[in-house]
Amino acid sequence: MHRVLLENKLGRLLRKGEIAHHINEDKTDDRPRNIVLLTNSNHTGLHHPAKKLKKFKCVMCKKSFQLKPHVARLRMSRNSTKKLACSPTCGVAYGNRLRGAR
Question: What total number of domains does the chain contain?
């Protein structure tokens, strides 16, 4: 019903990738002023905001870098030291240093 109401409000049919969004997020509230047009990507961004980046310091070069929290957890679970490097180069260098390689 809300799609039809928005189409009437716009005077055209909704296109592929367009969403009828309820401003107050109450899907039973089909007042025309409560329904707006959003693109699919804008609608997704509204309901699933991007995860904030966390700051880390490289274990090898001490450079600051940022990662999404789930990426940091994944990287830390894959190494025995539970420490993060800013790049594969620093990660390999740190591993070599731990093993005593020259």
Answer: 2
